[in-house]
Amino acid sequence: MSSWDDLYPLAMPPSWVPGAAAGIVSLHLIQKLFFPYFWADLRYLLKVLMYGLKVEMYRLQGKIVTILDKFVKLAEKQPHKPFLIYEGKVHTYRDVDRRSNRIAQVFLHHGALKKGGTVALLMGNEPDFIHVWFGLAKLGCVVAFLNFNVRSRSLLHCISSCEPKMLVVGGDLLGTLEEILPNLEKDVSVWVMTKDTTFPSVHTLLDKIEAASEDPVPVKRQSANNLKSSVLYIFTSGTTGLPKAAVISHMQVLKGAAGLWAFGATAEDIIYITLPLYHSSASLLGIGGCIELGATCVLKKKFSASQFWSDCKKYNVTVIQYIGELCRYLCSQPVKEGEKNHKVRLAVGNGVRNDVWREFLDRFGAIKICEFYGATEGNICFMNHTGKIGSVGRTNFFYKLFFPFDLIKYDFEKDEPIRNKHGWCEKVKKGEAGLLISKVNAKNPFFGYAGNKRHTEKKLLCEVFKKGDVYFNTGDLMVQDHENFLYFWDRIGDTFRWKGENVATTEVSDVIVMLDFIQEANVYGVSVPGKVSFSSSLILKKNTSLDLEQMYKQVVTYLPSYACPLFLRVQEKMEMTGTFKQQKVRLVDEGFNPSTITDPLYFLDNSKKAYVLLSKEVHEMILSGKIKL
Which pTM value belongs to this model? Predict the structure, then answer.
């Protein structure tokens, strides 16, 4: 009699299958243990490569596709889809396309603009900022985004540095225009976003837009010959001095616009933009990113912490943009019920501190924080695609292959990279802070600053590791840990980050020394609760006294609010370094404590709109947070 096994023999697997299965399990365990981020890194790298290949394919086919080209195609493909929502009003893709056509037609017939000419744009956050930007781009113009917080002499410097043929000013910034108009170059044609004006030799734009045609201008005006050609100037304070006009190419715009997509945003997302449009985060990552996705964005005139979440709920926002300070402001708001009752799933930005990052997630729910690093004019970018708290991104062998960079040793006293006896720079070890530099080559070029060859050359480091190599000096100190996560450590030189803006101490001191009783001003950063603020050491001219009323009037008139020194310290003698530079280290260490500093100290009391004597009581109230800064 046959057994069951004889009648129905079991199919035995080949002898190699158990071994293979064990091998796969072992490899999986090894990967989890020693390479925990392998798949996340691979997915991110493939995304980056796919985007690069797509752009390269267009180039090989003889096509130059810019972000404006993509927008025009979307206006044809999805004309009725909302592109902008501003103060409750919806502007569809077709609406924005047609209004930008009107503006292009106005300047085509009235502005005498040539392709490649520069136009400076001084406007706040409003739909017409984008209409003017796109309209000028359709004429093949380079648009310079001016920071509307910058005033007087600094603003005139910004305008002259990019040599515009025309200046377009928003209707709510006529006061700023009035300040600079007498000193503006006579060959700059000025247009204001109003129907009438009392300014002599100033053109109005709104009335002409209404009468203009919606027809597109000739395509040859807007078509780009090269993705490396200039399309924007975005101002940055860099590491020292007055703002500089960073040259932005079509390629940089495309790279910036791919950021939201790389982090996982889709065409179905609604993006909330509260950052100023003159900033690359709002214009390139925000508006450009919205176009790259074919999505919708909600534009806010000005960031409001109290209205932020109600706006997100009202407009079903799914993606928000931030800077570190923005997250802190939101966390500082009084706790309300239902704070997690929203649809926001991604928060994209940079500069958020570890403690604020954690508090933000605990309080507002499971939002993926997408921290990134990238200088406006730089040729390197990092993206934290894993969500590691505090990190600006990750690196690995393959990433460095495509985007070569290094962290090198830096001498803080001499304010320059350390070179060995052979003259070469030296890399820091993992866990040590080093100056971030990125290699300049054909694939990762540095376009420099408009009208400033000296500053462009100053940002480049030559002969770094070998003869003939060139690197972009970011001016940022970074740390790479043993898991290859990167962390922002600090800025070098004389620039500090305040309320999302990089502010040069030299810009502040230049305004202060304009006063007739100031001999010298040394501006530096001091730590106050939760941030770094400005303090200024002052040397008075002989036979003069400190006029606090005049000092207050000077800084609030000529400086953005975030750049006004919070503290003043009057000294008899200014300390200098061995190379005749102002000594800041001891001043920074001493801070603003009236108990240990014998020099007279003063505090900018915004409630009194004046500088007042800094007493021990006021000092304690600042440290305890009773006085809001």
Answer: 0.81
Average pLDDT over residues 151-175: 93
SS3 labels along 382-431: EECCCCCCCCCEECCHHHHHHCCEEEECEECCCCEECECCCCCECECCCC
Average of per-residue pLDDT across 422-441:
94
Instruction: Give the 3-state DSSP-derived string for 271-302, with helices as H, strands as E and coil as C.
Output: EEECCCCCCHHHHHHHHHHHHHHCCEEEECCC
Percent of the chain with pLDDT over 90: 60
Structure tokens at 236: 């940055």
Closest CA to 74 of 134, 17, 121: 134
Q: Scan for tokens 């709510």, then name that residue.
A: 172
Based on the fold, state whether residues 411 and 439 are members of the same structural domain.
yes
Look up the CATH number of the domain holding residue 502: 3.30.300.30
Kindly give, in sequence order, each residue whose CB lies less than 8 Å from that of residue 88, ignoring residues fewer than 6 positions away.
Answer: none
- Element (DSSP H or E) covering residue 527: strand 518-528
Evaluate whether 258 touches 290 at the Cβ level (below 8 Å). no
Q: Which amino acid is at 189?
A: S
- Residue 628 CA to residue 621 CA, distance in Å, equals 9
For the beta carbon of residue 58, count every other beta carbon within 10 angstroms: 14
Mean pLDDT for all residues in the chain: 88
What's the number of CA atoms in the CB half-sphere (13 Å) around residue 39? 5
The answer to whether 321 and 348 have CB atoms below 8 angstroms apart is: yes
What's the pLDDT tens digit per position in 69-121?
A: 999 999 999 999 999 999 999 999 999 999 999 999 999 988 678 899 999 99
Q: What type of residue sits at position 220?
A: K
pLDDT in tens, 549-568: 999 999 999 888 888 999 99
3-class secondary-structure state, position 197: coil
Tell the burial category of 558 from Cβ atoms under 10 Å away from its Cβ (0-12, 13-18, 19+). buried
Tokens of 60: 């090989």
E strand or H helix that includes residue 247: strand 244-249
The span from the CA of 71 to the CA of 1, in Å, is 81
Q: Tell me how crowded residue 415 is: count the other CB atoms within 10 A of its CB.
A: 15
Does 19 fall in a domain?
Answer: no
Q: Which two tokens stand for residue 321?
A: 């943009």
- Specify whether 177 is located in the same domain as 263: yes
> Which amino acid is it at 373?
Y
Residue-wise pLDDT tens digits, 574-619: 776 433 457 777 888 888 999 999 999 999 998 899 999 999 999 9
What φ, ψ does residue 266 adopt, rounded to 5°?
-135, 175
On whether both 32 and 107 belong to a single domain, the answer is no
* Residues with Cβ within 8 Å of residue 114, at least 6 apart in sequence: 165
Q: For residues 284 and 421, state if they share a domain.
A: no
Amino acid occupying residue 628:
K
Q: Is 14 helix (H, G, I), strand (E, B) or coil?
A: coil
What stretch of H or E contains 438?
strand 433-439
Work out whether strand 416-417 and strand 410-411 pair parallel, antiparallel, or are unpaired: antiparallel
Residue that the structure tokens 């093949």 belong to:
140
In a domain? residue 100 = yes
- Residue 532: the pLDDT is 67
Q: Where are the beta strands (DSSP E) in 177-229?
A: 189-192, 202-204
Contact (Cβ atoms closer than 8 angstroms) between residue 343 and residue 317: yes
Instruction: Clarify whether residues 503 and 431 are in a common domain.
Output: no
Amino acid letter for position 617: E
Q: Are residues 591 and 482 in the same domain?
A: no
- Note whether 133 and 52 are same-domain residues: no
The C-alpha atoms of residue 575 and residue 201 are separated, in whole angstroms, by 49
